[in-house]
Amino acid sequence: MKVKIIGTLVMCAASMQVMADNAPYWSGSDGNYARGRDGHCVRTITWTAKDAIAGCEGGKTAAAKPAPAAKPEPVAKSEPVAKPEPVAKATSAAPEYTDLSLASGASFKLGGSTLSADGKAAVANLISKFDGETIDSVVVEGYTDDRGAASFNQQLSEKRASAVKAELVKNGVDADKISTVGYGEANPVASNGTREGRAQNRRVVIKVDGKRRQL
Fold first, then answer.
1. Could you report the per-residue pLDDT of 54-81, keeping only the tens digit for each?
2. What is the DSSP letter of 29?
3. How many CA atoms lie within 13 Å of 149's alpha carbon, on the beta-carbon side?
4. Which of 87, 117, 132, 140 is the most exposed place for a label (fewest CB within 10 A)?
5. Residue 10 located in a structural domain
6. How many helices (H) and strands (E) does the chain have?
7. What is the pLDDT of residue 16?
8. In contact, 147 and 156? CB cutoff 8 Å
9. Into how many domains does the chain fold?
10. Which 3 state secondary structure label does DSSP give 128?
11. Are residues 25 and 124 in the same domain?
12. In this structure, what CATH number is given to the domain that contains residue 183?
């Protein structure tokens, strides 16, 4: 039995020869590739997967590696849109007042809050310089000197400011545009140590914010 196997190997070797150095398959004398019982070509020791031939490997070749997928083009980053500069809010202009100071001696009796004829004439003359519809606001401020009780002076200054407001309304000024305030003996404009100074401190100031008539 041992002799028979050797003889078979010798016969196979005799029927195959290498076609060229480092050939991947054995070939016969007829130039065709030698095949085994499974029908596949007989590989040489130099065979590698890249040498595979479809006809020798049962119609199958080593699966080719798929080509790498193309990388997507990078998306260009859009430049950030510059934010518009904030629009500065328009600041309302401070009102421009036209002032009239009514001396207490000529406009009110001593210790009284009834506006005199001279005081009424002064108010009418002031308002005649404005178009009533263009008056934005009026502020009436009442003041006294420092003689007498502070509480009495405070009330007196408020009453005199209210009397002037009433006269302004009679001259066509919208009451809603008029504000009054009494300061009593505060904010003197002269010394209360003299008769003349005290007379200056007893006053009612009218401040009108509006468009004057064109003369």
1. 777 764 444 445 567 777 777 667 677 7
2. T
3. 3
4. 87
5. yes
6. 5, 6
7. 46
8. no
9. 2
10. coil
11. no
12. 3.30.1330.60
Please report whether residue 39 resides in a domain. Answer: yes
Q: Which domain holds residue 145?
A: 97-212
User: Is residue 198 helix, strand or coil?
Assistant: helix
Interatomic CA distance for residues 167 and 68, integer angstroms: 97
* Residues 140/204, Cβ–Cβ less than 8 Å: yes
pLDDT value of position 121:
94
Rounding to the nearest 10 degrees, give the CA dihedral for residues 43, 49, 54, 57.
Answer: 50
Q: Are residues 47 and 102 in the same domain?
A: no
Reported as a single tens digit per residue, the pLDDT across 103-129 is 877 788 888 899 999 999 999 999 998
DSSP 55-120: TTTTT--PPPPPPPPPPPPPPPPPPPPPPPPPPPPPPPPPP-EEEEEEEHHHHS-TT--PPPHHHH
Handedness of CA 195, 198, 115, 97 (dihedral sign): positive
Flag whether 184 is in a domain: yes
First to last CA, the chain: 147
Q: Rounded CA gap, 180 and 189, in Å?
A: 19
The whole-model pTM stands at 0.55
| DSSP code for 34 | P
Q: Give Dmax (Cα) for the chain.
A: 160
pLDDT band, residue 8 (cuts 50/70/90) = very low
Over the range 61-83, which residues count as b (16 or more CB within 10 Å of their CB) and which as e? eeeeeeeeeeeeeeeeeeeeeee
